Task: inverse folding
């Protein structure tokens, strides 16, 4: 069973690489595709990681092996975990291939950033490939979970995180406020979706006469429907705390849009005071405007 540090962990690592260099997904015509891919990856990772345990609990058939892993896991969950992890791993390999020509065209500081990030990512991907395929070559068990595979993955993850830390601290890799904002927001979103997914599955199987596969499918559709509204609300709240540049820019843009349709001076003054209050939260706000000059003077 191919649970490379858990399918969700593999997906999150792939997203971290694709956010290089400014903490944003690719812009332009590929932006919509990248957002859809991230959404699908997160949902698939959540479902494949916690789904087997929920199904076992719902069916009152929980068994733990000597390594602390749940068994047996149905073929459907095994396939879902394998597919999710393999797609995330393939996206990492694609990212590694795309960075080669970018490295040649990049300037000095960007080269240093990419050198550290690329080195850590290469070690991490090599560790994932080794943990997945070496057991298959040795004994025919694809992606088997054992102490050696787990240690290999932990080593690769540690190297990647250390390289990212060096690139961030020494060469200013990423817009760190944006990265903190994204990491916090997606952790909150993932936790909320995972809790909602687990709650819906347990409710449907324990209270309602619904079979586990149907409950899992319904919970997945509900999580997919709630992802974008939840992401917008959580991102707005997190940006207010960790990414003031974006939050203030959105506040100013909103004020400008309202200003275009307002001609009353008192209304404009009130909107300006409200925008400043929400952006900077001062103890007191005063707006002074020049007195109107009578016509003809």
Result:
């Amino acid at each position: 069973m191919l649970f490379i540090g858990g399918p969700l962990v593999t997906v999150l690592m792939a997203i971290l690489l694709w956010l290089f260099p400014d903490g944003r997904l690719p812009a332009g015509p590929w932006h919509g595709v990248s957002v859809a891919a991230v959404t699908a990856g997160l949902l698939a990772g959540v479902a494949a990681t916690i789904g087997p345990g929920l199904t076992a609990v719902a069916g009152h058939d929980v068994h733990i092996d000597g390594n602390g892993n749940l068994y047996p896991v149905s073929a459907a969950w095994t396939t879902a975990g394998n597919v999710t992890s393999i797609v995330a791993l393939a996206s990492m390999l694609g990212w590694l291939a795309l960075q080669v020509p970018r490295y040649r065209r990049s300037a000095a500081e960007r080269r240093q950033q990419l050198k550290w990030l690329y080195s850590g990512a290469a070690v991490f991907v090599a560790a994932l490939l080794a943990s997945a395929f070496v057991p298959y070559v040795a004994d025919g068990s694809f992606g088997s979970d054992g102490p050696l595979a787990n240690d290999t993955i932990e080593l690769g993850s540690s190297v990647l995180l250390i390289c990212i830390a060096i690139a961030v601290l020494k060469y200013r890799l990423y817009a760190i406020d944006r990265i903190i904002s994204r990491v916090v927001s997606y952790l909150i979103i993932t936790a909320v979706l995972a809790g909602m997914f687990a709650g819906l599955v347990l409710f449907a199987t324990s209270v309602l006469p619904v079979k586990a596969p149907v409950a899992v499918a319904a919970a997945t559709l509900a999580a997919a429907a709630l992802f974008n509204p939840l992401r917008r609300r959580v991102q707005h709240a997190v940006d207010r705390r960790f990414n003031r540049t974006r939050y203030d820019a959105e506040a100013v843009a909103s004020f400008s849009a309202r200003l275009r349709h307002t001609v009353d001076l008192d209304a404009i003054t009130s909107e300006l005071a409200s925008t400043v209050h929400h952006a900077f939260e001062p103890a007191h706000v005063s707006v002074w405007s020049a007195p109107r000059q009578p016509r003809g003077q």
